[in-house]
Specification:
alpha/beta; Rossmann fold; 2 domains; 9% strand
Length: 300
């Protein structure tokens, strides 16, 4: 297996200037985004590392004891396009970090919440860097510098997204996992954060095998199982996993939710695959579950 750089990325000590107030990282002028990267096999391996290891850790890097801080919700829609994400990625890699922070502060002043800064801007930028790498449009150094700077920015905006260690309302237990066979775990950590904030006890399995997933639901009680699919496995395979989860579940009334890229344009597809509902994103997932719980209470 080619060296993907996992050891370097995982073991790197924090840069001396990882704190926002210190000078920017050196050397960004010589790592253009359109530079030629190494061989395709290595690129694909690192892209998978970015998706399955680095990005989830980036999303969870701010987690720690704290209290829920109020966030400023947008008074009107603040649209973030793919072009905006691409431009911000270029800014993060090539420009002084102070410019990236000023850009995000401007979005906050326009009403973008701290949650949206993380889920809509920072996480999308991290994924965009992974796509550029996979397409041989950026270098290993670009990705390393970009992700390091995104982590610095996350330390600035993350505190407003912290989770209380003792939620005021206990909702139940949820297992979140990607469908076995899928490799794209991007976004699952953000979904986990939203459920924790809503009062759920969350257990996550980023890359479970099917036996491991089934063992979890067979031996532990979960009120909800949320599965993510990006389209790497067939719809029939997703439906088979849903059936297996229901058949093995310690909770005979377990609810199953499907999300991920496969359901962004058509969340109702989830129902045809045997799930109780589908969700386009983390916020919708929590709201759909809340609606389902309220409906259940009213029918009792």
């Amino acid at each position: 297996m080619p060296d993907s750089g996992r050891g370097f990325l995982a073991a790197r000590k924090p840069y001396a200037d990882d704190n926002i107030g210190l000078p920017d990282l050196p050397g960004v002028d010589w790592c253009p985004l359109d530079a030629v990267g190494p061989e395709p096999g290595l690129r694909s391996d690192l892209a998978r590392t970015i998706e399955t290891e680095i990005i989830p850790r980036l999303m969870l890097a701010h987690r720690g004891p704290g209290v829920v801080r109020p966030t400023v919700e947008a008074e009107g829609p603040v649209s973030i396009s793919d072009a905006d994400v691409a431009a911000f990625a270029d800014m993060v890699v090539h420009k002084p970090l102070s410019l990236a922070r000023a850009h995000l502060d401007g979005l906050r002043d326009r009403g973008l919440s701290a949650e949206a800064v993380i889920t809509t801007v920072l996480s999308a930028t991290a994924r965009h860097l992974g796509v550029l790498w996979d397409q041989d449009r950026c270098t290993f150094v670009d990705v390393t510098v970009g992700l390091s700077r995104l982590q610095q920015l996350l330390r600035v905006y993350g505190p407003a997204f912290e989770v209380s260690p003792t939620p005021l309302v206990e909702r139940g237990r949820v297992l979140l996992a990607v469908v076995p066979g899928e490799q794209h775990t991007f976004g699952l950590a953000v979904v986990e954060e939203f459920f924790r904030r809503a009062g759920w006890h969350v257990q996550s399995e980023f890359l479970p095998s099917k036996p491991i997933l089934i063992e979890h639901v067979r031996t532990e009680w979960f009120d909800l199982v949320g599965l993510s699919a990006s389209g790497e496995v067939s719809a029939a395979a997703v439906a088979a996993v849903v059936r297996a989860v229901r058949a093995a579940s310690l909770n005979p009334s377990v609810k199953v939710m499907l999300g991920g890229n496969l359901f962004v344009s058509d969340p109702d597809l989830a129902v045809s695959l045997g799930a109780d509902f589908g969700a386009r994103d983390a916020a919708e997932a929590v709201s759909r579950v809340d609606w389902m719980l309220e409906t259940k209470k009213m029918s009792c």
